[in-house]
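Meet our chain:
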Amino acid sequence: MAEKILLVDDQPKNIQVAGTLLSANGYEVEAATDGFRALEWLSEESFDLVLLDVMMPGMDGFETCRRLKQLPGGEDIPVIFLTAKSDTDSLVEGFQSGGIDYLAKPFQAEELMVRVKTHLEMKQMRAKLKDVNKWLQTEVSNKTIEITEANQQLKDALLKVESLDKSKDNFLKIISHEIRTPLNGIIGASFLLKSMAVSPEQKEFFEMLDISLKRLESFSYAALQITQLQASGNFFPKQHVDVHEIVEEANKIALADQQRRFFLESEDIPPLNVNKDLFVTALIKLLDNAIRYSPADSLITLKVHKQANGLHFKLTD
């Protein structure tokens, strides 16, 4: 489709010359002999470019251009002034009124065609850029909606997780308390029956029962610790304690009546700044694992030595 140009000049001869040249180069040309008629054309039809004479009776080219730019879509139409004025003030006024370029009269045909072609190509590029920006805005808007919906889904999921977390905490608290009461009675009864056992089979049975009860008691205590930690926001007090003291306490709990030998190999280590209860619990779990997977009368060795990033605990069974 041919690009459409509006030629505005009060001299019919100028319109004829420029119009013939533009038509010969494949452009569709309409003409107006004054600013008023030009604005009527522009309000009724769509043009790709306007060639506008400056010195016209009634309404000059500058005023015509200002009014053109106020029309719907007028800000996107490039205006090239055709003028005999070449003084700086006239040129500045032309650009301030909305013009994009100017040609001095009498103009050269080659120059006119180069200016027209250049500004039409620039108009096409601006239109494409405008379309791209519009598409980008739509994409950003859509992505913003998606992100907002995703954030809301995450918030809803987080609320559900928090609710489930609270339910789990309550469950652990109830279980740990409800188990410990009857468990204490069973442990006492087991200890009494164990002392009354006569045959090797009975003693072996109560040894197995004792191990199971201790594991159940350990689970109950661990559940209570987890609940307490989560209730406190995983904040727990620390204190300076001796490594040997921590290991000895864990050893007494984990290896009591387990028929295992224990050896601690350590360097001169300064006191640790830790939560004693949790650290002892961690060592008990490691020792309990070593007991389960090592034969009776075997040796369990704990080596503690300093490294660049802290202390290294190595358990061997």
Notes: The longest strand covers residues 299-307. Helices lie at 12-24, 35-44, 61-70, 88-96, 109-196, 200-231, 243-254, 276-292. DSSP finds eight helices and ten strands in the chain. The first helix runs from residue 12 to 24.
